[in-house]
Design goal:
195 residues, 7-stranded antiparallel β-sheet, 1 helix, 41% strand, disordered C terminus
């Protein structure tokens, strides 16, 4: 083999040797990831220990619906203790603020106010987390919000204060409350026209 042939052979071997690392540099690594998607709501409504006294019914599917019946007498107030529980899911960082987004009241006994007293299940209504006050009437107004902490469960007590006296033959009234939940603190006052 002559010198030019040897040089051509060496050049060919070098070209092949240099081409191998270049081809290896173009290796692509593929990783596969699986992500499970689970729907979790920030809060879940639950019956409280005294739910049976007010015929509580509730559903958490689609839009939550809560229904309870409070018998109001000619006393200065009717207090419903631990009728409702609200559990704040721990996967949602907080705090969260519970408030009344809207309310309405159909004719019935005239009510001065309805207080929603919220406190942890480990606490007492004498030292509540907060109170939301509703004033039913021809217009229904609500004020106040309550701070809820992720991972905690709270009771909601209802304190109904009627305007006395309640006359015999007065029909039952229905107070409709639309709760709101926000992760931003604000002073909430809602006025909804009488239906």
């Amino acid at each position: 083999m002559n010198r030019i042939g040897k040089l051509a052979l060496v050049a060919g071997i070098l070209a092949i040797a240099l081409a191998v690392p270049m081809a290896a540099a173009n290796v692509i690594f593929v990783y596969q990831a699986k992500v499970n998607v689970m729907p979790v709501t920030p809060i879940v409504w639950l019956p409280g220990p005294d739910a049976s006294y007010v015929s509580l019914s509730l559903t958490n599917s689609s839009s939550p619906q809560i229904s309870l019946t409070i018998p109001v007498t000619n006393s200065s107030e009717t207090y419903v203790y631990q009728a409702l529980k609200v559990k704040v899911n721990s996967v949602w960082s907080g705090p969260w603020y519970l408030y009344v987004d809207a309310c309405s009241y159909t004719p019935g006994p005239t009510l001065s106010s309805v207080n929603l007293i919220v406190y942890p299940t480990t606490g007492s209504p004498t030292s509540p987390t907060g109170t939301i006050t509703i004033t039913p009437g021809t217009t229904c107004t609500a004020s106040g919000s309550v701070t809820l902490t992720a991972g905690n469960t709270y009771y909601i007590d209802f304190q109904v204060e009627p305007s006395l006296p309640i006359k015999y033959g007065t029909s039952s009234g229905t107070l409709t409350i639309d709760f709101g939940l926000s992760n931003e603190s604000s002073s909430t006052t809602v006025t909804v026209p009488y239906p």
